[in-house]
Amino acid sequence: MNYSFDFMYDIIKNRNKDYDGVFFTCVKSTGIFCLPSCKAKTPFSKNVEFISTALEAKEKGYRPCRRCHPMNGPHFYPKWLEKIETYLANNLNRAVLDLELSNLVNLEISTVRRHFKNKHTLSLKEFHRNLRLEKARKLMQEGKTMKEIHPLVGYQSVKGLKLAYTKHLGIM
Ligand SMILES: [Zn+2]
User: Fold this and answer.
1) Does residue 159 surpass a pLDDT of 50?
2) For 84-101, how does the pLDDT look when each residue is reduced to its tens digit (9 = 90+)?
3) Which of the residue ranges 12-16, 100-104, 120-124 would you say has the lowest mean pLDDT?
4) 1 CA to centre of ligand 1 in angstroms
5) Where would I find the beta strands (DSSP E) of 12-120?
6) Average model confidence (pLDDT) for the chain?
7) Which residues fall within 8 angstroms of residue 20, CB to CB, at 6 or more apart?
8) 19 C-alpha vs ligand 1 centroid, how far in Å?
9) Mean pLDDT along residues 14-29
10) Which residues neighbour 43 within 8 Å (Cβ) at sequence distance 6 or greater?
11) Which terms are listed as keywords in the entry (predicted)?
12) 77-172 topology per CATH
């Protein structure tokens, strides 16, 4: 974020939509953070802190504004998360290792986990398991047996798949 405070303050005064997702306005007096285009009254500059990601704003203890919903919209999440999602979706027949994922995007696995959870509210493992079990459900609907399906969705036994599947349906 290479903009000056005055530049950004001007953006929020004008409610300029072009900068939504580029930076966030955190309001120290209310503990709320907003998109630059938020329609709410522009806060006094002394109460404003600008932050580059919604995640950082949340980590600093700010809550998302109910008016502009700064957590919504795909462009507020790092682009590389899509690589992770595709990779998980393309590897349903086995467990995916942390190392593969961190190598894929060249980031620490803890960073990957943090951003992933922030976007999906599921861990990498939970997300991957859901994909695998949804695939199992589809294959069952096509008439395949559990015995045929379990190696295709990364379960070592029919028993393991059955257990996970029942639990999955139970929580859906
Ligand atoms: Zn707002």
Assistant:
1) yes
2) 999 999 999 999 999 999
3) 120-124
4) 20
5) 24-27, 32-34, 48-51, 63-64
6) 91
7) 35, 36, 37, 73
8) 13
9) 90
10) 25, 27, 29, 30
11) Activator
12) Arc Repressor Mutant, subunit A (1.10.10)
CA 27 to ligand 1 center in whole angstroms: 10
Residue 25 CA, ligand 1 centroid: distance in Å = 8
User: What CATH number belongs to 5-72?
Assistant: 3.40.10.10
In this predicted model, which residue has the larger pLDDT, 90 or 52?
Answer: 90
How far is the centre of ligand 1, averaged over its atoms, from the C-alpha of 152 (Å)? 46
Q: Where are the domains of the chain?
A: 5-72, 77-172
Instruction: Using the mean position of ligand 1's atoms as its centre, give its distance from the Cα of residue 85 in Å.
Output: 29
- Tell me which residues have their CB within 5 A of the ion that is ligand 1: 34, 38, 65, 67-68
pLDDT, average across residues 51-68? 90
Distance 26 CA to ligand 1 centre (A): 9
Looking at residues 22-34, what average pLDDT do you find? 94
Provide the terminal-to-terminal Cα distance of the chain, rounded to the nearest Å.
Answer: 40
CA of 70 to the centre of ligand 1 (A): 7
pLDDT-derived band at 53 (thresholds 50, 70, 90) equals: confident
Q: What residues have CB less than 8 Å from 145, skipping those under 6 apart? A: none
